[in-house]
Amino acid sequence: MYSIKSERGEKKTAKGVARSVVERNIRHEDYRRCREELKSTREIQHRIQSENHKLKTVKVNKIALCEFDDKRYLLDDNAHTLAHGQYKI
Fold first, then answer.
1. What is the pLDDT of residue 60?
2. Burial 55-66 (b: 16+ CB within 10 A, else e)
3. Which of 40, 33, 37 is closest to 3 using CA atoms?
4. Rounded to two decimals, what is the model's pTM?
5. The organism sits in which domain of life (predicted)?
6. Less Cβ around it within 10 Å: N or C end of the chain?
7. How far, in Å, CA of 4 to CA of 28, rounded?
């Protein structure tokens, strides 16, 4: 997950979350709050699911932003990271 804010607008991604939810509900400030306060954010998303060849609409409450990143080591400033296995850790 990441968010970049510039004069042209915001560029943001959140893996596993529907693009419409990211575009409509999640802002750059939510990413900052997640990193600084170490709090997760949950969002409701709707999707169409097939079960036994029957379509149905499902409402899913997913974790959209999570403060825990298992692929990176967060430094003390809560802004910079290092890859696991890096020699400085």
1. 94
2. eeeeeeeeebbb
3. 33
4. 0.70
5. Eukaryota
6. C
7. 7
